[in-house]
């Protein structure tokens, strides 16, 4: 008889990198979203690049669930990306087996805080996923690794997080990386 195991995975990253989209794309249940409308009052705080049509923002977390197979269920916790909500990250990361850190190469500066957090302040294995907005890679992964100063042991992959299959591969990469870290 096979035992069912569950694992908590955190989906983290800067403001507007696709965390809510990733959780929603893969979740087998309707994703729980704690979103609020973006207002003119927050325009100076939550800055978006021109042409971005984002109208809501996560204010607490996103939550989803995906059954990988008969033995593994992943519970996904998406972090809010704005700096004013970063204190919540410690609570969201507690108990996680790993983290998927999303980055947007069109706004790489938005990614440094998340990379720094997982490199220095969190004690979970993590990988970095370049979100391929519109399915297009704007930079080589080696360039992204260098720009983010990622340690060699941190896996770096690319995925269009609107595609559930690509998100599944990224989540499996997190699980695989976490298992290798636990073994060795």
From TrEMBL:
It comes from the Bacteria. Keywords: GTP-binding, Hydrolase, Nucleotide-binding. InterPro entries: Gliding_Motility_GTPase (IPR052705), Gpn (IPR004130), P-loop_NTPase (IPR027417). Gene3D superfamilies: P-loop containing nucleotide triphosphate hydrolases (3.40.50.300). Pfam families: ATP_bind_1. GO terms for molecular function: GTP binding; hydrolase activity. Belongs to the GPN-loop GTPase family. This is Signal recognition particle receptor subunit beta, a GTPase. It comes from Actinoplanes philippinensis.
